[in-house]
Design brief:
Layout lengths: L2 H33 L5 E2 L3 E4 L5 E9 L9 E10 L2 E2 L4 E6 L3 E9 L2 H8 L4 E13 L2 E2 L5 E10 L1
Antiparallel strand pairs: 1-3, 2-3, 3-7, 4-5, 4-6, 4-8, 8-9, 8-10
């Protein structure tokens, strides 16, 4: 057999084996999402309101299960809503799967909210999170999971 054909066959089988390993890992990741859905957790958020009551920094710990065998990340798309309408811009952050990590985001209050908080009132914000796994730097949108919305009351 010629050297060129031998090299081609070796490369072909390496690519075939890598494709098989990746395919099995994607399948295992999908099964792990189904089996461990309850391990996607968002801890109780903490709030840091600026001294002039115009911005709030929210920090919450997000926990994720390990999926499959190959290390992956997850992109969290975080949308805040008030009264069913978007409150601020969509915020994104990326964390490694299988870890718990603090996620921090900042949003600016409207003047009506500043007045409400300043007079001792509260506002209710709904946090909607969509989790998109990232595999070798490629977002796998078909595995995206929407976490249940959470209402937070800001004192």
């Amino acid at each position: 057999m010629r050297k060129g054909l031998t090299a081609f066959l070796i490369i072909f089988f390496v690519i075939l084996a890598a494709g098989g390993v990746i395919g099995v890992d994607i399948y295992m990741s999908y099964k792990d999402v189904e089996a461990n859905y309850d391990q996607f957790t968002v801890g109780a958020p903490t709030f840091d309101i600026s001294s002039d009551n115009t911005t709030i920094t929210v920090t919450a710990t997000v926990g994720t299960p390990k999926l499959g065998y190959i290390t992956k990340s997850i992109r969290l798309d975080i949308q805040l809503k008030k009264g069913g309408t978007n409150y601020g811009d969509l915020q994104q952050t990326t964390i490694k799967l299988g870890e718990s990590a603090p996620v921090e985001f900042v949003f600016v209050l409207t003047s009506a909210d500043v007045s409400s908080i300043g007079s001792g009132g509260t506002i209710t914000i709904t946090i909607e999170i969509s989790a998109v796994p990232i595999y070798f730097g490629i977002p796998l949108s078909f595995l995206a999971q929407d976490l249940p919305p959470q209402d937070i009351v800001i004192p």
